[in-house]
TrEMBL record:
This is THAP-type domain-containing protein. SUPFAM superfamilies: Glucocorticoid receptor-like (DNA-binding domain) (SSF57716), Ribonuclease H-like (SSF53098). PANTHER family: BED-TYPE DOMAIN-CONTAINING PROTEIN (PTHR37162:SF1), HAT FAMILY DIMERISATION DOMAINCONTAINING PROTEIN-RELATED (PTHR37162). Gene3D superfamilies: THAP domain (6.20.210.20). InterPro entries: HATC_C_dom (IPR008906), RNaseH-like_sf (IPR012337), THAP_Znf (IPR006612), THAP_Znf_sf (IPR038441). The keyword DNA-binding applies. Residues 1-82 form the THAP-type domain. SMART domains: DM3, THAP. The lineage of its organism: Eukaryota, Metazoa, Ecdysozoa, Arthropoda, Hexapoda. Signal peptide: none annotated. One of its GO terms (molecular function) is DNA binding. Transmembrane segments: none annotated.
Length: 695
C-alpha cells in the first residue's frame, strides 16, 4: 500500500479523504539527499515505491494541479516537512535567534502568511544552515576516494566503510555526515580528482616542450588500450600519465589519428612535441607507415627513440638461443613441478632447512618480463643442493616427471650453463635496470652503452684490440681478434667449476664454443640496435654537472644544430656564450654530490645582476630543459600497464576505461611516494564536487 514516509504522517492512498497526491523520491542523487535531510533520515535508503504526500510541499512546488487529486512537482522541488519557507524573509530578525528559534518561527501564522510566492524553486533554510559544514564533509569523502584509488580497493567496500567510520566515531559530526557509496566514490575518482589531475597535465603540455611515450596493450577484460605518458621538465623531470584510449584497431593510422585528435581537442600545440619513444614493434617504429614515421612526416625534427630496455631484453633472448636449450627447459620444468602444489613446496622446505638454505620459492622465467630469466637462474643455483635431494627422494615414486628432472640436475654441464648465464645475463640486466630509471639517463646512455659493449667484447676478444679501436669500428665477428678458446672469460663460478671438474676436454671445449657463440650473438644484437657512430647521445654528456665543472666541453653548437626546433640559428652564439660563461661562474660551480635536476634548476633560477627580473642564462636554460624532456626508454608507460594490472584484476574485470583512467590520474594527483591521507584538498577539487560530477 502506498503511504507517506514522513515520520508521524498517517496519509495513505487507502485512507485519503483530503485527496493528497503521493510523490516518489527523485532519481538524482543530489535532490534525493536533500529530501532525506528534510526527513532527518540522511542515511536511510528509500526504495523505488517510497513516497511523500503533497501536504509536505509548498503549494508553489506544483506546476500542474487537477482538482485535489493529481499534482505534478516542479523540477528541483524539495519537501519542507515542517516549514514551507522561502528566504530571505525581510520581516525576520535573527540577531539573537538560534536554530531552534528559526524552526519554531516557521510554525507561526505570521511566517506562513508572509511567505512569498510565485517562485518555481526553493532555497531551504536548512541548506543554508548546513552549507558551512559541507566543506569538511566533502574533504573527507575526497580523501576516502583517494584511499580507494591508492590501495586498489574495490568500490563495493564503500557500501560499508562510511557506516563503519560513523560507528567508530559517533561523536564526530563530519563522520556522521559522510554519505559516500560506490556510485559517489566512482564519480569523485572520475570527475573530481581524476579530471583535475588530467587538466593539470594538459595545462603543462600546452606551455612546455614535451615527449610522448606510448604503448598499446590488452587488459584482463580483453580491451585494447593505447596508453600515453608525457615527459617534461618543470623544476624536475616528470613522467606524467596523460590518457588511456580504447582501441578497436591498433594499426599505425588509427594510433596516429588518436594522438592527433587528443592534441587538437586539448589545444596542445604540435610544435611542443619534441620527442617520441615506444617499443620496437613495426606498428610503432617501422621505417614505413608506422606511428613514428607518420609523426616525423609532420614534425621532421622529432627525436625518436626505440626503447633501450626492450632492445637489451631482445639482445639477451637472441644470445640465449645459441646455448643448449636444456638448462632453460630444466628451469621451467622445476617451476611447473612445484607451482600450485603446497605439499611439494612443504617437502622442499624440509630439505632447505636441512642444508641451512633460505626457504625461497622457485621463480618463473617469463619470456616477456625483462629481468626474470637471470633471477630464475640465480634461484635454481641457490637451491641446487636442496633440489637434488628432493628429486632424489621423489624419483623413487614419480618415475616420469621427477626422474627426468633429477637426471638433468645431475648433468654437470647444465649447472655450468646456469653458472654462465648467471654471469653473462647480468651484463644485459645492469643496462636494463639503469634505463628503467625514472630519473634522466639520456646523458649517460652513450657512455653506458660503450661500457656494456666493451665488457661483453672483452670476454672473447683481445683486450688490446678492443681498447685501441674506435668502438664503432670493432669487427665483432672477426676470428683473428678472438682470444684462444682456453682464455675465454666465462665468469668466476664457471672458472672455479672447471678447475675442480673431471669432465672430458672435448665436452668442455664444446661448452666453451657455445659460450663463444653467445658472446658473438649478443654483441651483434647490441650493435644492430644501437648506432655507436651517432654523436647525439655522446654530445648530451654536457648535461652532467661534472662536465660543467671539468670544462672539457667547449661548445654546444654541434649538438644544437641537430635540434633546430629547439634553438634557431640566430640563437647559437648566445647559447655558446652562456655556456662558456657558466663554466667560469664559480658561484654556480656544481658540488660533487649534486644531482643533475637540482643543478640545472639552480642555473635557471640565477638572475642577471643588471636586471634581476631577467634570467642569467635564458637560452641555455631553454635548451637544457628541452633536452631533459627527451626520453631514454619507454619504461614509464610499462609502469602504467603494471598499475592497470593491479587495478583491473579477475575480481574487478568490469571497470570501464574512464574509471581506470580516473584511478590512474588520482594516484598521480596523490603523488607516487606520498600516502593518500596527505592529499591536499584545495578549492580546485571542491569546486568540481557538485551534482555535475555524476554526468
Amino acid at each position: 500500500m502506498v503511504s507517506c514516509s514522513v515520520p508521524g504522517c498517517d496519509s495513505s492512498k487507502r485512507n485519503n479523504p483530503q485527496h493528497y497526491s503521493f510523490h516518489q523520491f527523485p532519481i538524482n542523487p543530489e535532490s534525493r539527499e536533500k529530501w532525506l535531510r528534510m526527513l532527518n533520515r540522511p542515511h536511510w535508503t528509500p526504495h523505488k515505491y517510497t513516497t511523500i504526500c503533497s501536504k509536505h510541499f509548498h503549494p508553489h512546488c506544483f506546476s500542474v494541479t487537477i482538482g485535489q487529486k493529481r499534482r505534478k512537482l516542479r523540477s528541483g522541488s524539495v519537501p519542507t516537512i515542517s516549514m514551507p519557507v522561502e528566504i530571505p524573509l525581510p520581516h525576520l530578525s535573527i540577531g539573537s535567534a538560534g536554530k531552534n528559534d528559526l524552526f519554531r518561527h516557521t510554525k507561526t501564522n505570521k511566517h506562513v502568511n508572509s511567505s512569498p510566492g510565485g517562485s518555481s524553486s526553493q532555497t531551504l533554510l536548512t541548506d543554508l544552515i548546513s552549507n558551512k559544514n559541507l566543506e569538511p564533509v566533502k574533504r573527507g569523502e575526497i580523501l576516502l576516494a583517494a584511499f580507494i584509488a591508492e590501495h586498489n580497493i574495490p568500490m563495493n567496500i564503500m557500501e560499508h566503510l562510511p557506516q563503519l567510520i560513523k560507528n567508530m566515531c559517533p561523536d564526530s559530526q563530519i563522520a556522521k555526515s559522510i554519505s559516500c557509496d560506490r556510485t559517489k566514490t566512482t564519480a569523485i575518482v572520475k570527475n573530481v580528482t581524476g579530471i583535475t589531475a588530467k587538466q593539470m597535465t594538459i595545462e603543462k603540455l600546452q606551455k612546455l616542450k614535451f615527449s610522448l611515450i606510448v604503448d598499446e596493450s590488452t587488459d584482463r577484460g580483453c580491451v585494447k588500450h593505447l596508453c600515453i605518458v608525457a615527459r617534461f621538465f618543470e623544476r624536475k623531470v616528470e613522467d606524467a600519465f596523460v590518457c588511456l584510449i580504447p582501441l578497436e584497431e591498433a594499426n599505425a593510422e588509427k594510433l596516429h589519428k588518436h594522438i592527433k585528435n587528443f592534441l587538437s581537442d586539448n589545444n596542445i600545440p604540435m610544435e611542443n612535441l619534441i620527442g617520441f619513444a615506444a617499443d620496437g614493434a613495426n606498428t610503432m617504429m617501422g621505417q614505413h607507415n608506422s606511428l613514428s614515421s607518420r609523426l616525423v612526416a609532420e614534425n621532421p625534427h622529432l627525436f625518436v627513440l626505440k626503447c633501450v630496455c626492450h632492445s637489451f631484453h631482445l639482445c639477451a633472448s637472441y644470445a640465449c638461443l645459441k646455448l643448449s636449450r636444456e638448462p632453460e627447459t630444466l628451469i621451467r620444468d622445476i617451476y611447473n613441478y612445484f607451482n600450485n602444489s603446497p605439499k611439494r613446496i612443504g617437502i622442499l622446505k624440509e630439505f632447505q632447512q636441512f642444508l641451512d638454505l633460505k626457504p625461497h620459492k622457485i621463480l618463473h622465467p617469463a619470456q616477456t618480463r625483462w629481468l626474470s630469466l637471470r633471477a630464475a637462474v640465480c634461484r635454481i643455483l641457490e637451491q641446487y643442493g636442496a633440489l637434488k635431494l628432493y628429486f632424489t627422494e621423489t624419483a623413487l615414486t614419480d618415475h616420469l616427471n621427477a626422474d627426468s628432472i633429477l637426471f638433468r640436475l645431475k648433468n654437470p654441464y647444465n649447472k655450468l650453463y646456469l653458472e654462465f648465464l648467471e654471469f653473462s645475463l647480468e651484463i644485459f640486466n645492469n643496462m636494463n635496470k639503469l634505463m628503467q630509471s625514472e630519473r634522466p639517463q639520456i646523458h649517460k646512455m652513450h657512455e653506458n652503452m660503450v661500457t656494456v659493449f666493451k665488457t661483453l667484447l672483452e670476454c672473447y676478444m683481445d683486450d688490446g684490440y678492443v681498447s685501441r679501436t674506435e668502438v664503432s669500428l670493432i669487427q665483432i665477428d672477426n676470428p683473428r681478434h678472438y682470444k684462444p678458446i682456453d682464455d675465454l672469460y666465462l665468469g668466476a663460478k664457471v672458472s672455479a667449476s672447471l678447475v675442480s671438474t673431471t669432465l672430458h676436454q672435448e665436452d668442455i671445449k664444446a661448452f666453451k664454443l657455445k659460450c663463444l657463440d653467445f658472446f658473438i650473438e649478443g654483441a651483434k644484437q647490441v650493435k644492430k640496435r644501437y648506432n655507436f657512430s651517432n654523436d647525439v647521445f655522446k654530445q648530451m654528456q654536457f648535461l652532467d654537472p661534472q662536465a660543467v665543472k671539468s670544462r672539457r666541453i667547449d661548445s654546444l653548437v654541434t649538438l644544437a644544430v641537430k635540434f633546430p626546433n629547439l634553438i634557431s640559428r640566430d640563437e647559437l652564439q648566445q647559447l655558446d656564450t652562456e655556456w662558456r660563461f657558466l663554466r667560469n661562474n664559480k658561484d654556480l660551480a656544481p658540488d660533487d654530490s649534486q644531482d643533475l635536476e637540482s643543478y640545472w634548476y639552480k642555473v635557471t633560477a640565477a638572475r642577471d645582476p643588471a636586471n634581476y627580473s631577467n634570467q642569467l642564462y635564458p637560452t641555455l636554460s631553454k635548451f637544457v630543459f628541452a633536452i631533459l624532456s627527451l626520453p631514454h626508454s619507454s619504461a614509464a608507460v610499462e609502469r602504467i600497464f603494471s598499475s592497470i594490472n593491479l587495478i583491473k584484476t579477475k575480481q574487478r574485470n568490469r571497470l570501464n576505461t574512464d574509471t581506470i583512467e580516473g584511478l590512474l590520474h588520482t594516484k598521480q594527483l596523490i603523488g607516487g611516494a606520498k600516502p593518500c591521507y596527505s592529499l591536499e584538498v584545495d578549492n580546485k577539487l571542491l569546486s568540481k564536487f557538485n551534482k555535475n560530477m555524476y554526468s
